[in-house]
Amino acid sequence: MNVIKYISTVRQPRVKLEFLGVKWYSKYVPGEPAAPSVKEVYGPINKRMKKELSEIQSTLSVDRFIDLDRSIGNYFVDADGNIFLDTYMQIASMPLGYNHPALLNVYKDQSKLVAPPEMGYVNTQMCGSCSNEQAFKHVFIWYAKKRNGGRDFTKQELESSMHNKPPGCPHLSILSFWGAFHGRTTSSLSVTRSKPIHRLGFPLFGDWPAAKFPLYKYPLEENVRENKQIDSKSLEEVEDLIQSNEKKGWPVAGIILEPIQSEGGDNHASSEFMKNLQKICKKNSIALIMDEVQTGCGATGKMWCHEWFELPSPPEMMTYSKKMLAGGYYHTQEMLPDKGYRVFNTWMGDPARLFVLEVVLQTIKEQKLLENVQKVGNMTLKGLKDIVKEFPNVLHSPRGRGTLIAVSCKDDPTRTKILTSMKKKGIIGGSCGPVSIRLRPSLIFEEKHANIFLDKFRQAVGEL
Fold first, then answer.
1. Out of 16, 112, 155, 346, which one is annotated catalytic?
2. pTM for the predicted model, two decimal places
3. Is 291 one of the annotated active-site residues of the chain?
4. Around Cβ 197, how many Cβ atoms within 10 Å?
5. Catalytic one among 136, 177, 181, 273?
6. Which of 363, 387, 403 is the last residue of a domain?
7. Is 248 an annotated catalytic residue?
8. DSSP helix/strand/coil, 93
9. Which tens digit of pLDDT belongs to each residue from 377-434?
């Protein structure tokens, strides 16, 4: 399925919506509608606008056009006036939904970001891909300093670097996991292993290794022994790859992974796996990079997903974007570069978006949205498990932390039918991995929204 791309740059006459005159209030956003309302999934205005846009750019990934003025809270309103309960939030990028009151007057003095525990240094970037890209450079600087004792560059290194050759441009690698998605710039794409279409036709780093991510059997409580064996096999492969890459002259400087693999299928790894992976990194003087682009900023019920793992020490680096409304990465003190301008860009993040982020973080705290995410997430996952029990021949493996939730279908055609049916019923959902459906709602997703989703989802599955 194509990624939904909401286009807001093309304006057209407003569509009158009946719910705007109704006094109906959400707990968090005044003026939310009470339920979805879809007259025609792809109405005439959406069709016309897509045709017009196709004359100046590719529309292969464009699903529909948003009316940003009318969309509110958890509800997405398209150009034809269809009202959708949005459980996907532009691929996990809208922390407070649409037109939250706190965001209508946000240009204040900026303040500190919410740093992960014991990671007091931040480097701001523009997006998730460039955050990972620059984080790799940061890791390579740190790795070289540890290997060469912090000495200055030699004449040979300086000259060879201008020819893209060692020793100035050394053969170093970043280890990732199969199923991972870390971005679309060259280095980030070299560690992305979710779909061939992302990588086809581009010259990438062929000696950067990938290990199998733990793919557990569900329910977890009934497969404890098997899942421990899955953890062990993955960790053994990681150690083997570190050794083999060292021997062939491409030593591993860093290991990057998502706390929950998102594009790859919402794959979860245990706290024990994460702790043992960190032990391997420490033993081999390798930096551990947590990619929290999708999982960060409260989506799992904690500010950062890796906090659930209770690691004995912080990862060396943690990248962010999406709900944080800007890109960047946090890191520990030992990762500080020894020279300026080696990790740099023109903007170093967009100040205007940091103003908005300040209000988002303040709202998360004041409205206790992390607690809301945990409460609603637990309720939604329980409801999803009940539906799986009702339709075991269609669905399996419900899983999640907070409202970052997924369930697997028996095959891809079944998933497509369910998502199509949900859209007709006014529910926007997302896909990931070979057969999974995932939720990425806002932090203000309430129990009543979850009940609407669960009801429509059950109807869609039942119609099969």
1. 346
2. 0.83
3. yes
4. 7
5. 181
6. 363
7. no
8. coil
9. 999 999 999 999 999 999 999 999 999 999 999 999 999 999 999 999 999 999 999 9
